[in-house]
């Protein structure tokens, strides 16, 4: 198993905590709960799975709007990326700076790995602008096979 297969670790949760403290953001109970749930999973999760995992974790029922608000907060501040095509949420692997993440998303096991390559974002911006379009997404998703799954099918 490659370290890269697990972009979210308990360490990521700690990084989110520290970033919130540094930036004066409140990591409320529900927000911290969502962060903990995401940190515990190796693949990006959908909102429903997060609500279920949080309910199990806290041993009580969770009001979905609470989780949706927490997700909005985490996305707005760059802690999570939303993978639009699958409607799941992936932890941002580069919390310390503003960037456009490139998510390599495995179609077989569902795991995603975030890489950063400024030239990719710049190329998309240039190409979009030449079509009179302003690109705004904060994440570029590339669907395919991870190293492990590609190895298995080879
Ligand atoms: Zn990111
Ligand atoms: Zn895979």
How would you describe this structure to a colleague?
With 154 residues, the protein is an alpha+beta fold. It has 6 helices and 6 strands. A 3-stranded antiparallel sheet has the order 1-3-2. Strands 5-4-6 form a 3-stranded mixed sheet, with no helix packed on it. Helix 1 runs antiparallel to helix 2. The longest helix is centred in the first third of the chain and has 14 residues, at 10-23. The radius of gyration is 16 Å and the shape is globular. One zinc ion (ZN) binds at residues 106, 108-109, 111, 146, 148-149.
Beta fraction: 15-25%
* Major β-sheet annotation: 3 strands, antiparallel
Q: How would the global form be characterised? A: globular
Adjacency order of strands in the biggest sheet: 1-3-2
Structural class: alpha+beta
Find the CATH topology. Arc Repressor Mutant, subunit A
Give the secondary structure arrangement, pairings included.
Elements (H helix, E strand, L loop, with lengths): L9 H14 L5 H12 L4 E2 H12 L5 H13 L3 E4 L4 E4 L9 E6 L5 E4 L2 H13 L8 E6 L2 H7 L1
Parallel strand pairs: 4-6
Antiparallel strand pairs: 1-3, 2-3, 4-5
Helix pairs in contact: 1-2, 2-3, 2-4, 3-4
The structure holds zinc ion (ZN) (2 copies).
Brief account:
This protein has helices spanning 10-23, 29-40, 47-58, 64-76, 118-130, 147-153, and strands at residues 45-46, 80-83, 88-91, 101-106, 112-115, 139-144.
Keywords:
alpha+beta, Arc Repressor Mutant, subunit A, 3-stranded mixed sheet, 46% helix, 17% strand, globular, disordered N terminus, binds zinc ion
């Amino acid at each position: 198993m490659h370290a890269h297969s697990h972009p979210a670790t308990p360490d990521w949760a700690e990084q989110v905590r520290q970033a919130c403290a540094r930036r004066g953001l409140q990591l409320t109970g529900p927000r911290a709960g969502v962060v903990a749930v995401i940190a515990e999973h190796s693949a990006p999760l959908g909102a429903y799975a997060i609500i279920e995992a949080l309910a199990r974790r806290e041993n009580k029922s969770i009001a979905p709007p609470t989780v949706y608000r927490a997700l909005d907060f985490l996305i707005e501040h760059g802690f999570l990326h939303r993978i639009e095509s699958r409607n799941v949420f992936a932890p941002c692997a580069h919390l310390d700076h503003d960037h456009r993440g490139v998510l390599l998303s495995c179609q077989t096991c569902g795991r995603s790995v975030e890489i950063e390559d400024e030239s990719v974002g710049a190329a998309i911006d240039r190409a979009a602008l030449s079509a009179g379009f302003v690109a705004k997404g904060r994440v570029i998703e590339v669907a395919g096979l991870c190293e492990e799954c590609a190895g298995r099918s080879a």
